[in-house]
Give the backbone structure.
Amino acid sequence: MASQPRLEAADRVTLLMSFVPYLIEQGAIPVSQLAQHFDITAGQVEELVQLLAMSGVPGDDGYYQHQDLFDINWDLFEEHKVVELWQHVAVDATPRFSAREAAALLAGLQYISGIVPERDKGIIDRLVAKISSGASALPENLLITPAAVPVDLDVIRDAVSSGLSVHFVYQNASGEKNPRTVDPLRLDLVGESWYLRGWCHDRSALRTFRLDRISELSISHDSIVTQLTASDLSDELFDIKETDIRVRFAIEESALSLLSAYHPVVIGSHGTETLEVEVAFSDLASVPIFVAQIPGSISVLSPAEAISAVSLWAKQALQSYNA
């Protein structure tokens, strides 16, 4: 009779990591059933059982005592080929979520549950159950209101699955509205604001759009033109390029959070309760629009061309107002 193939050392370790929790959860199990479940031979199951009997965690003195090793019901194993753990070690020492950590995770899941597709809601429910049962104490009940989604996300999802672009009217920060055709790639939630990132046909470039400035959203009949995918995008909402213009501002510390979507880099203090920050822009035309979001709380420090752009924009606005 041919001898049973022995398991490699790495395979034995990998199998034991699944073997022990399975035995703890299932109780006494026939060798044949274990072999079928783990897709190994009965001989290899017996090899694992022998290895398990010599495994454990040494005590504080560095030596093994009986209570430091796994213990098997050897009579049941040798007479009936059934594996039953009488004693297990170390498994109960696995770190568990605290009640506060579990509550934070559950709050995050609840936060996104309102916007995930229906087909994925079951995954959310299963994660909630696992986190709740795996916590060291019962998590607190938290009521989280998901961020409001200003457009129908199903339109964007359908466009992605169909390989089509989307049409919409976009209002920029200065209030101007323009039609856009965009290949949708990724949705991001930053604070309370949703953003669509995609390839803009009208600008022939990647662009980021706030959903609350989008209207008249619909699927177009145009196939997507970009070869990019969501995985090609960085986690930074606004990618900084070598060609971008870096502008420095003095901004009231209390207003900094209002500009978080632009990822301002704090350089240092600029007087009492005022910070010096740096923001990257693709062109100077965007600087006045940026400043206009928090008038009275921000001023341009450098470069000179950015100061001139904001000054000219302010003069033109004043002339239009007085006309």
Notes: The radius of gyration is 30 Å. The chain is about 35% helix and 25% strand. The first helix runs from residue 9 to 26.
